[in-house]
Each structure stands twice: as C-alpha cells, then as structure tokens.
Specification:
mainly alpha; two-stranded parallel ribbon
Length: about 80
C-alpha cells in the first residue's frame, strides 16, 4: 500500500508543481551558462552522474556552454557525456 504522505505524488497537480520547478531550474541553468559565455567566461562542471546527463540534455547544454566535465571516478575520465555534443 502507498503511504498516505506519498499518495500525492500520483496527483496531477503535485506532478505539475514538480515539473514546473524542474523546468524553472533548467531555464535558470541555461540562462546562467549563456550569460557566462557572453561575458567571455568558460563553463566547467563537476560530476558526470546520470542525473547530470539528464539535466544537461533538458537544458540543451553543449560544448559551447560547458567546456569540460570532471569526475572523480576513473571509469568516467576521458569520456564524453551523452547528448552534450
């Protein structure tokens, strides 16, 4: 059974609020990266987790906005992030 406190997560209004918040963060990230590029600064990121891939993909982040991504995991070093080219 779904806990009462979790039941709202299936409510369309709740899902809409979460989606709106995610959309707002995506727009804010994209705008900030574009402002930094316009000011002549290069963007870099740390952490190549799958969540970062999803965020970058949703925000349309590519090499023109983020020059490189670093990660402590040796398995991720020297590779590229899907969807960022």
């Amino acid at each position: 059974a779904v806990l009462e406190s979790e039941a709202a997560m299936t409510d369309p209004a709740t899902v809409g609020v979460v989606q709106d918040a995610a959309d707002s963060q995506v727009v804010a990230l994209r705008c900030w990266l574009e402002q930094e590029r316009a000011a002549g600064r290069r963007g870099y990121a740390y952490g190549a987790a799958s969540r970062a891939v999803a965020l970058f993909g949703r925000a349309g982040v590519n090499r023109s906005l983020v020059a490189a991504v670093a990660d402590a995991s040796p398995a991720k070093q020297g590779r590229r992030m899907p969807g960022t080219d």
